[in-house]
Amino acid sequence: MKDTAITEANPRPNHAPSKTGITKPTVGIDIGGTKINAAVVVPDSKPGEEQFQSLINAPTPTDSAVFMDTLVTMVDTLKQQHDVAAVGISTAGVVDSIHGRILGSTGNMPALKNLCNLKELLEARIHLPVHMENDANAAAYGEWRSGAAKGAENMFAITLGTGVGMGIVFNGQMYRGTHFYAAEGGHIAISYHRERKCTCGRWDCWEAFASGTGLQKTAAIALEAAPETAKAEFLQNYCTNNEVTTYAVIAAWKDNNHIGAKIIDQWHNHIAVGLGSLINVMDPDMIVVGGGLAQFVNFELLKERALERSMSNDFQLVPATLGNHAGIVGAAYLALETLS
């Protein structure tokens, strides 16, 4: 998910990467709040069917020096196994992808607050060119180049997890915006009643409804309005210590519990509201939905609800295919294309 903090003005970024495939082994690194995943994306016999190999991971350090050492060790390990041409890094936060600077880091990755010039520091130690990208952008680009959205001209991808991330490929090109703010779809407003406070500090953002956190809030509201007998049954059967979690909601929904089904139905409405607005603005030919919660999305129902709110009816709505590796693949592509 992107962070909305930004600390300095930026030049207009370049939106015109080449459309060549992976021609040389390239390291892709996806930095998350708890874990760093890395792999080498290598050429395949058929363009566009690249494979990632030698997948490794490590816990995300909170100390900046340890964080740097961890990245260097991971790259060195992969360099011993492959003739690596470049390194692409996918990370949360606002990222100046032109100069490789982190302009706004996220709270769950404190090490990055002292590593705004991560590209420069890492290049000096691994002796390879490094490209940095926001994680939602990298994931969307990975799906466009080698995943579910391959062949699309105008697409956007959303990730449904703790938050809502988004990335855009517009006219066949990665779109980042003038100040690298583009694709903050999770922070479009879908209500004006000041119903829910978002983690960004604003009210009624799409993320506050469509994310896992939003689903949990929807569940709490539904239970509060439910008859006492039904509420007690739900808490007893699906909740530990009366704590209403997304896992509890999913379990109830799978069990055909009436309250669980109602919550999930409302969640699909919340997702569709945001999708409809984004479709009307961008007129995409394809929308990709990924993230940990995507497996619980009824795509037929979601498209039906989105169509009720969109002017276009000519778009595909599909699940992501690269899973947790989308950021790795997208970062690798972008790194090699930057060299080109």
Can you lay out the helices and strands and say which pair or pack?
Elements: E1 26-31, E2 35-42, E3 51-59, H1 64-79, E4 86-91, E5 94-96, E6 101-104, H2 118-126, E7 130-134, H3 135-146, E8 155-160, E9 164-170, E10 173-175, H4 207-210, H5 212-225, H6 228-238, H7 246-254, H8 258-282, E11 286-290, H9 299-307, E12 316-319, H10 326-339
Parallel strand pairs: 1-4, 4-7, 8-11, 11-12
Antiparallel strand pairs: 1-2, 2-3, 5-6, 8-9, 9-10
Helix pairs in contact: 1-2, 3-10, 5-8, 7-8, 8-9
In short:
This protein is an alpha/beta fold. Helices cover 36% and strands 19% of the residues. It has helices at 64-79, 118-126, 135-146, 207-210, 212-225, 228-238, 246-254, 258-282, 299-307, 326-339; strands at 26-31, 35-42, 51-59, 86-91, 94-96, 101-104, 130-134, 155-160, 164-170, 173-175, 286-290, 316-319.
Question: Would you mind describing this structure in some detail?
Answer:
By secondary structure, the chain is an alpha/beta fold. It has two domains: 26-147 and 324-339, Nucleotidyltransferase, domain 5 (2-Layer Sandwich), CATH 3.30.420.40; 155-320, ATPase, nucleotide binding domain (Nucleotidyltransferase, domain 5, 2-Layer Sandwich). The protein is 36% helix and 19% strand. The chain contains ten helices and twelve strands. It has helices spanning 64-79, 118-126, 135-146, 207-210, 212-225, 228-238, 246-254, 258-282, 299-307, 326-339; strands at 26-31, 35-42, 51-59, 86-91, 94-96, 101-104, 130-134, 155-160, 164-170, 173-175, 286-290, 316-319. Strands 3-2-1-4-7 form a five-stranded mixed beta sheet. It has a five-stranded mixed beta sheet with strand order 10-9-8-11-12, covered by helices on one side. Strands 5-6 form a two-stranded antiparallel sheet. α9 (299-307) links the parallel β11 (286-290) and β12 (316-319). α7 crosses α8. The radius of gyration is 20 Å and the shape is globular.
